[in-house]
Specification:
The complex is a heterotrimer. By secondary structure, chain A is an alpha/beta fold. Chain A has a single domain, classed as Rossmann fold, CATH 3.40.50.2020. Chain A has 4 helices and 9 strands. A 5-stranded parallel beta sheet of chain A has the order 3-2-4-5-6. By secondary structure, chain B is an alpha/beta fold. Chain B is built from 11 helices and 10 strands. The longest helix of chain B is centred in the C-terminal third of the chain and has 32 residues. Chain C has 2 domains: 100 residues, Urease, subunit C, domain 1; 306 residues, Metal-dependent hydrolases (TIM Barrel, Alpha-Beta Barrel), CATH 3.20.20. The chains are: A alpha/beta, B alpha/beta, C alpha/beta. Chains in contact: A-B, B-C. Chains A and B meet through strand 9 of A and strand 1, helix 1 and helix 11 of B.
Chain lengths: 190, 344, 427
């Protein structure tokens, strides 16, 4: 996999997240009943950043958790060995809340489908919204994002790689290129 | 011996397995063998992987909906050739919480009573395409036999006095919950070491994770050359308990009968029963474990079993999580093996 | 009648103190001479240059399973396996069905062996009626019918009293009492040796002490009675120590060991392969070392196979449930050559004593030497031949061997009984 271009640097990411934070509050008329849930792995630091930003301008700390979709993947019978299971941390009730799912890249939509199933096993939220840093198209499910940092048209030979400081040492969004078309569950990786 | 060759093929390469690959941050979780036959055959990394996975599975049992769709369409067969309520139920619930289909065949209802051999039983079950087989059997090596005969993943749920790997894993998870890490701990296992698969699996597991393991038993219940397993052995309980972080008492198998190992349960309790007085010799923050079912007043006093140091019921809860983890991980190994076979 | 000339081999005959390159002539079934450049004089000539020509090997401990368990082995297949293993005679244990506690059974065995016409079979009768350990069998009748020894093999002679009487009674017939040395109260259902491996695997262990206790008892009784005691398949260092000491004190005792006991240890059981399940069990390395030492120093008199065929279905059970036993006829000689001779533990002379001279002496057979007028039983060995054990190709009906696939050096190439080549190595 070769690097082709830098799509966003740290400052651009920060600006996008600031805008998304404002949009979330604006669209929901405040922060009441709002919760943020990051999808493992790179949705989690993004959700935390959004929580932090909302607290800065609204003074309210929105309940924020994480969800691991591994056990809900629709391809477990096709991939092997099984992926490592990571923690799901939802230490608040999602019943009747507006839950904003946060992920780094929206691609096929399969991750979001799995995350929706996972969330619903914890209760019945009033609504679920979706925030992503990058929407790269190629949807395979009828899913769209409510909040998008940047739309990036891609070919299937391209891969969007979001890097987060806590995980990867820097904040950036890279476009990579591969030799063969490989269907991917969702971006955020190779 | 466990088969490892197939599993070493590693994660499916791009282009295989429906052209799906894992995101970079989701490393493939891999056990080397298609089967879990004993802790002896695992390395420390594999044990940690199972414990880490089990740790995340614990939360599922606390949700309003205690079920995930992970093993949907997989079929799990419990083959119990020896009576067991706790382990069998735990495996059944674990499989069901992962949405697998389960069927339990117990010795009384099986064709074993009609004189069918284990291998023939295994072949017949194999012909129904199960994904996972769980076997409890009175004789050492029975799970190995099944694993050699069947392509399904085989989980040893106890083979005679040999191994009971999921018990050791749930014990390790329980200790880790309380002590943070197992490395450097002093763990005392006391009771009928000679006839205990729990002791053997725990000795392997705890030693691989860096604990010092001490065994204490009357010499009549201590197996020959037990030090070869890497443990310190005591023929009295008191000196063994000094400085202990964890004490596991083993069930005295009263049903085994025989008056040659100890003269009476009264005398056994006086010498080896875990009483509050004896427990006071261990560290202040000692935890007390028992694989169950307990003989109160024989190997353990009730006030210890129900006391503040006891983590016996947590062991049961952790058993569920560990078995879910093992089922999840082995289902993956099994699929990997099938992919390799298909490709070949 | 027929004549056979074995030309140019290394003739090793401990009985006559011969070890030289020479020709050996067998005339009408009897040895007629050893010398250099013997004239064929119309004899069939077998070029055995580069090979060892030894008095025919005798396996004094086999289970031929006939009558009664012909699905495991028959006298015909068992003797074919013996010939294919380089043996010119076998002594078969009485634990058939019915047991050989009656002259009729003895005669049946000999008759069937004659029909098979491969190698002679020397029946061993029971010590006690039905091997039940209560009443002495009709030992006089058994000997008259052709038995060369008595044994309750499979079980020990049940009580000290019975063993005493057996040792006394057999003095009349000058035959040995062959003892299966195992204190059953110590072994119970144990499927393997007691030691670190049984501890690791969770099996009940069979302690070497169980063997030592019966050896000790029987040595005391042999001394008391002056009877002839032969301890079967010795596997324990302690037993060997006592036998060595007893021999030094002039007690009339001999003993035997099997290749599986001097080659394998109980570590093999870790595979749960039921072909490693045998009684006495495979022991630890310390015992194996003691066996090899005793083979070298003369404490051990004979190498035997304890050939114990079992059908594959019977062995395809849980280790605890599978029957004891290993087939040995077709692997014993190469194992002995490879592991004892080629590794320098024993000389060729000693090897021939262990496989031929001593078994013949213990059973009072007219065999085990190549002197003029002796029966022309000869085993020809190619000590340099390397081959792989192929259980599927065994002449035996059963394949329960832990040695399948082993590459070994030193194999029999001709088995000659009374001047007839009854087997020759393929290729």
């Amino acid at each position: 996999m070769r690097k082709k271009a830098t799509i966003m640097d740290a400052r651009q990411i920060d600006r996008s997240l600031s805008r998304i934070a404002h949009e979330i509050v604006e669209r929901n008329h405040g922060t009441d009943n709002l919760a943020l849930v990051g999808i493992r792995s790179r949705g989690v630091p993004l959700a935390e950043t959004l929580q932090h930003k909302i607290k800065e301008f609204e003074g309210v700390e929105i309940p924020t958790g994480s969800v691991d979709i591994t056990l809900y993947r629709d391809d477990l019978s096709q991939i092997a060995p099984n992926p490592v299971v990571q923690a799901t941390e939802l230490d608040f009730e999602i019943e009747s809340k507006v839950v904003v799912l946060v992920d780094d890249v929206l691609f096929t939509g399969r991750t979001i489908r799995a995350a929706l199933d996972a969330l619903i096993d914890y209760g019945r939220p009033r609504a679920i919204e979706l925030a992503v840093l990058i929407d790269r198209g190629h949807r395979e499910f009828p899913i769209r994002a409510d909040f998008v940092g940047k739309n990036v048209p891609t070919s299937l030979l391209e891969v969007i790689k979001v890097q987060c400081r806590d995980i990867d040492g820097e904040d950036s969004v890279l476009m990579m290129e591969v030799d063969d078309v490989v269907r991917q569950y969702d971006d955020g990786g190779e | 011996m466990p088969k490892t060759k197939e599993a070493e093929a590693g994660p499916a390469a791009p282009g295989d397995a429906g052209d799906l690959i894992l995101p970079v941050d989701q490393q493939a979780a891999s056990l080397k063998s298609k089967d879990l036959l004993g802790i002896e055959y695992l390395d420390a990394d594999e044990i940690q992987l199972i414990l880490d996975t089990a740790h995340h599975f614990k939360e599922i049992s606390q949700r309003p909906i205690k079920k995930v769709p992970t093993l949907r369409g997989k079929s799990v067969i419990n083959l119990f050739f020896e009576p067991s309520t706790r382990t069998r139920t735990s495996f059944e619930i674990a499989a069901k919480r992962l949405s697998a289909d389960t069927q339990t065949i117990s010795a009384s209802t099986s064709s074993m009573v009609k004189g069918e051999t284990l291998i023939d039983t295994a072949r017949n079950i194999e012909a129904m395409y199960p994904d996972l087989l769980i076997i409890r059997h009175a004789f050492p090596g029975a799970a190995h036999m099944l694993a050699r005969t069947c392509s399904a993943a085989v989980i040893n749920a106890g083979d005679g006095a040999h191994e009971h790997p999921t018990q050791a894993l749930l014990d390790a998870l329980t200790i880790r919950d309380h002590k943070g890490s197992i490395e450097g701990l002093r763990v005392v296992i006391c009771g009928d070491i000679a006839h205990s698969r729990v002791a053997r699996s725990n000795i392997h597991c705890l030693r691989k994770l860096g604990a010092t393991v001490v065994v204490a038993a009357p010499p009549t219940l201590m197996p020959c050359d037990v030090e070869a397993l890497g443990v310190e052995a005591f023929d009295r309980l008191e000196p063994a308990l000094e400085g202990a972080d964890v004490v596991m008492t083993l069930r005295i198998q009263l049903e085994r009968g025989g008056k040659l190992s100890f003269p009476s349960t009264r005398e056994y309790f006086n010498l080896f029963g875990l009483s509050r007085d004896k427990l006071a010799l261990a560290k202040d923050d000692v935890i007390v474990m028992h694989p169950g079912p307990m003989n109160r007043g024989v190997e353990i006093a009730s006030d210890v079993a129900d006391g503040p140091a006891s983590v016996i019921l947590e062991q049961v809860s952790n058993g569920l999580a560990v078995r879910m983890a093992v089922l999840y991980l082995l289902a993956g190994v099994g699929a990997a093996k099938k992919n390799v076979e298909t490709a070949a | 009648m027929s004549k056979l000339l074995l030309k140019g081999g290394r003739v090793v005959d401990p009985a006559q103190g011969i070890d030289q390159t020479a020709d050996l002539m067998i005339d009408d079934g009897l040895i007629s001479g050893i010398g250099s450049d013997l004239d064929a004089n119309g004899a069939d000539v077998l070029d055995v240059s580069g090979c060892v020509v030894a008095p025919g090997f005798i396996d004094m401990h086999v289970h031929l399973r006939e009558p009664g368990q012909e699905h495991k082995e028959t006298i015909k297949t068992g003797t074919a396996a013996a010939a294919a293993g380089g043996f010119t005679g076998v002594a078969c244990m009485p634990n058939t069905s019915p047991v050989n506690d009656h002259r009729a059974v003895t005669e049946l065995i000999i008759e069937r062996a004659d029909e098979a016409g491969t190698v002679p079979v020397y029946p061993i009768g029971c010590v006690s009626v039905g091997q039940q350990g209560e009443a002495l069998a009709e030992i006089g009748e058994l000997v008259d019918g052709g038995c060369v020894a008595v044994s309750d093999d499979g079980y020990p002679v049940a009580t000290a009293e019975l063993m005493r009487r057996a040792l006394e009674y057999t003095r009349m017939f000058d035959i040995p009492v062959i003892e299966h040395c195992e204190d059953l109260s110590l072994t119970g259902t144990a499927p393997m040796n007691e030691g670190r491996v049984s501890t690791a695997l969770g099996f009940k262990g069979h302690p070497a002490a169980a063997e030592d206790i019966i050896v000790a008892r029987d040595l005391v009784l042999a001394e008391l009675t002056g009877g002839s005691l032969h301890c079967a398949h010795i596997s324990s260092a302690g037993a060997l120590r006592m036998i060595r000491d007893a021999k030094a004190r002039g007690i009339n005792v001999t003993c035997e060991v099997t290749p599986h006991h001097f080659v394998l240890t109980d570590e093999e059981v870790r595979s749960f392969d039921t072909n490693t399940k045998t009684n006495p069990p495979l022991r630890s390395q310390a015992h194996v070392d003691a066996l090899i030492e005793a083979l070298a120093d003369g404490t051990v008199d004979a190498i035997v196979t304890d050939h114990a065929p079992h059908h594959a279905d019977e062995k395809a059970l849980e280790f605890d449930l599978a029957p004891f036993g290993i087939v040995g006829l077709e692997t014993a000689v190469p194992l002995a050559c490879d592991r004892l001779l080629h590794r320098g533990h024993v000389t060729l002379q000693r090897l021939v004593e262990l496989l031929s001279v001593n078994p013949a002496r213990i059973l009072r057979l007219d065999a085990g030497d190549l002197s003029e007028g002796a029966v022309g039983n000869v085993t020809v060995l190619d000590l340099e031949r390397t081959a792989t054990v192929d259980a599927a190709a065994f002449a035996s009906k059963s394949r329960n061997t832990p040695f399948d696939g082993w590459e070994l050096k030193g194999w029999p190439v001709f088995t000659i009984v009374a001047g007839e080549v009854v087997w020759k190595a393929p290729g």
